[in-house]
Specification:
The complex is a heterodimer. Chain A has four helices and no strands. By secondary structure, chain A is mostly helical. Chain A folds into two domains: 34 residues; 36 residues, no CATH class. Chain A starts with a helix and ends with a helix. Chain B is of the alpha/beta class. Chain B has one domain: Alpha-Beta Barrel (TIM Barrel). Chain B contains nine helices and eight strands. Chain B is globular, with a radius of gyration of 17 Å. Classes of the chains: A mainly alpha, B alpha/beta. At the A-B interface, helix 3 and helix 4 of A face helix 4, helix 5 and helix 7 of B.
């Protein structure tokens, strides 16, 4: 049962607005903090995550999850000897 | 709406929480053995913990009309201690026939180490030996994808494992498809920050359908919300889902899965 765009925005617009504001505020806090955020790899992941949101294709949540995930190695059983 | 929380850690919640959950419609719950927040020192600690799960908690739940069921194991975090883990696994059969014990769990991986895999497999052996369902913990955050795939590798390569008797919990957007396509049950855990929200759980229900899928609060000692299942009910209602569709996720599916355990004796409310 698909809802129409207007219904989704009616329910989610303010929530999305609040979450964008939170991200904006976090980036501002990083700017005010001592040191260079870009030197921390987590900062790079956050920026990449935000860029993923701009993609037009469905499945952004899954792609963000994979961005923040350790990779799977198909050879893990050989490496563990199990 | 009456609901069943298939994964909640009431040993870490106050009795006030039982009352709140009862008022919000909870009629049953299942509590897997978990990491208490610190590493226990001996098998006797686990024996006392299992006594709490099989004796004290069902009595506490009953005061509020909630039927309490439990799972036994040594959790993935403490599984790094192989010697202690084997002592606990050897002790589990003492409790397997307690009235509210329905399976082995929550077993799985934490940081995806060799020791964790070893003990995970030995728990699977135990579950197969006693023909009991299995409840799986998939790792947190950045370890979840890798660990879930490793867990599925182990289960799918073991022909003794009955996939319809396995619930793989804490699935999220990048793991739910893997679990369902492999024929296992999937559980979505709704946490404020570190797992999915009721809204994202509703998204996954809409994308994957409601077969072999359930949702839980995994309420425990960390940041969590034991009323997360009622939150999901509200989200699904706001989106226009039928009462029958909601009830399938929060009541029918949990009962259908747990009925695969010979010890699961749930009395529906009239």
């Amino acid at each position: 049962m698909a809802r129409n765009v207007r219904d989704v925005l009616d329910q989610e617009y303010l929530v999305a607005r609040a979450k964008i504001l939170e991200l904006a505020a976090i980036l501002d806090r990083l700017d005010r903090a001592n040191g260079e955020a870009a030197e921390d790899p987590r900062y790079g992941l956050l920026r990449q995550g935000m860029e993923l949101l701009q993609q037009k294709e469905d499945g952004r949540a899954e792609r963000v999850q994979l961005l923040f995930s350790r990779p799977y190695q198909a050879t893990w059983r050989d490496e563990f000897g199990v | 709406m009456q609901y069943f929380d298939p994964h909640i850690h009431m040993v870490s919640r106050t009795t006030d929480d039982y009352e709140t959950l009862a008022r919000m419609g909870c009629v049953g719950m299942s509590e897997p053995a978990f990491w208490a927040g610190f590493d226990r020192g001996s098998v006797e600690s686990f024996r006392d913990y299992f006594r709490q799960l099989t004796d004290f908690e069902p009595k506490r739940a009953k005061q509020f009309g909630i039927q309490h069921f439990t799972w036994l194991c040594i959790n993935a975090k403490e599984a790094e201690n192989v010697e202690l883990s084997r002592e606990v696994i050897a002790m589990i059969p003492e409790f397997i026939d307690k009235p509210n014990v329905i399976g082995i769990g929550e077993i799985g991986l934490n940081k995806n180490t060799r020791n964790e895999v070893t003990i995970f497999k030995e728990h699977v052996d135990l579950a197969v030996q006693y023909d009991l369902p299995i409840l799986i913990h998939t790792p947190h955050l950045e370890d979840k994808y890798q660990g879930t795939r490793m867990i599925l590798d182990v289960l799918c390569s073991d022909s003794r494992v009955k996939r319809d008797m396995v619930l793989v919990d804490h699935v999220e957007e990048h793991t739910i498809g893997l679990v369902l396509e492999a024929g296992f049950w999937a559980g979505m855990t709704m946490y404020p920050v570190s797992k999915c929200t009721p809204e994202r759980a509703a998204d996954m229900i809409e994308k994957y359908g409601s077969e072999r899928l359930m949702a839980n609060s995994a309420g425990d000692w960390g940041p969590s919300k034991p009323t997360a299942v009622p939150d999901l009910i509200m989200v699904m209602r706001k989106r226009g889902h039928s009462e029958a569709a909601i009830r399938k996720i929060v009541y029918d599916n949990p009962l259908a899965f747990f009925a695969k355990s010979r010890n699961f004796k749930f009395t529906p409310r009239e």
